[in-house]
Amino acid sequence: MSLEIIVNGESRTTPPLSVLDYLRSLEIDPSRVAVELNLDILPKGEYASTLLNQGDRLEIVHFVGGG
Amino acid sequence: MQIKVNEQRADVADGVRVDVVRDRFKPGADLVILNGFPVPPDTTVNEGDELYLIRRGEIPPREELEHLLVARHTPRVYERLKGSRVGIAGVGGLGSTVAVALARVGVGELVIADFDVVEPSNLNRQQYFVDQLGRFKVDALTETLRRINPYVAVTPHRILLDPDNVPAVFAGCSVVVEAFDRADMKSMLVDSVITNMADAMVVAASGLAGYGPNNTITTRKISRRLYLVGDLTSEAQPGNGLMAPRVGIAASHQANQVIRILLGETDDVG
């Protein structure tokens, strides 16, 4: 079974993973991003327990160094 | 006739000379500025003129500085800013520049946090001076902010911020500015504020190194409580260093976004 979700404005298909596993599947380091799920920022403590649902809108913001 | 003396209305006799006004309102003032220009003591004042009387080296009383700020921003704006408390996480190139801008417009309380000391390599972009080398940044910046406006309350924290201390350090702040250098610290700060500080907004920055185009630095509202400034890609690295102008562009985006939030301007997510 797979889900259709929107990631950074583009349609994607994924197995029903947790947000943490989804980030890992994209080789994204969770400690350098902010993840917005359906208009709100998802606390890092909930990445592992939050399962992706059909139609979710995910925005993954990558931080780069410099300040 | 009505004139303004140091931003406050005053009633004076028609055709009065500036030295007479000076002796009445600020005896011993060394400098008389009439409508923006220094003038000699025997100059005549006209209806509606704005006079500024300055004693060199004297810090104007709180009321006088407040009148100046009210005159510049209108009372509603001034009162909102004065009643605000803003946190700044990291006072390097971004944070020190944001702090200076917010102090200049009269934001009432600034909470600044950083554990670093001023190093020579900071002087290419950060709001420190060569005579402050080796001092804690929060102490040096507190001093600079007092020189800009001694009536802004600055709370300095010499501390390495972590997820556990962020909520206590920035307690009571309606907006927290993320102004760190490292990507993982940026991510940590955003997470800690969003998770633990129920109503606080975050204004973060990512991608501002080098001397790329001005206009690729933007401000986006990422979620209901997070704004992100920067081009999102220009990482600080060898060959793409941090430089005062572009860091300044990003910092000014952040400072202006803070003002917009404090004044109740809303933006759409996206």
Across the major sheet of chain B, the strand order is 8-7-6-9-10-12-11
Using the CA coordinates, give the radius of gyration of chain A.
12 Å
Which structural category fits the helices and strands of chain A?
mainly beta
Helix and strand pattern of chain B: EEHEEEHHEHEHEHEHEEEH
Number of helices of chain B: 8
Sum up the overall morphology of chain B in one term. Answer: elongated
Q: Helices and strands of chain A, in N-to-C order?
A: EEHEEE
Helical proportion of chain B, percent range: 25-40%
Ranges of chain B where pLDDT stays below 50 over 5 or more residues in a row are none
Explain what you see.
The complex is a heterodimer of chains A (67) and B (270). Chain A is mainly β and 67 residues long. Chain A has one helix and five strands; from the N terminus they run E-E-H-E-E-E. Chain A has one helix at residues 19-25, and strands at residues 3-7, 10-14, 33-37, 40-41, 57-62. A five-stranded mixed β-sheet of chain A has the order 2-1-5-3-4, with no helix packed on it. In chain A, a hairpin with a 2-residue loop joins strand 1 (3-7) and strand 2. Chain A is globular, with a radius of gyration of 12 Å. The mean pLDDT of chain A is 96. Chain B has 270 residues and is an alpha/beta fold. Chain B has helices at residues 18-25, 62-73, 75-82, 93-104, 137-148, 166-169, 183-196, 244-262; strands spanning 2-5, 8-11, 31-34, 37-38, 50-54, 85-89, 109-114, 153-158, 175-178, 201-205, 218-223, 226-230. In chain B, the strands form two sheets. A seven-stranded mixed β-sheet of chain B has the order 8-7-6-9-10-12-11, with helices on both faces. A five-stranded mixed β-sheet of chain B has the order 2-1-5-3-4, with helices on one face. In chain B, helix 4 packs parallel to helix 5 and helix 4 packs across helix 8 (244-262). The longest helix of chain B has 19 residues, at 244-262. Chain B is elongated, with a radius of gyration of 22 Å.
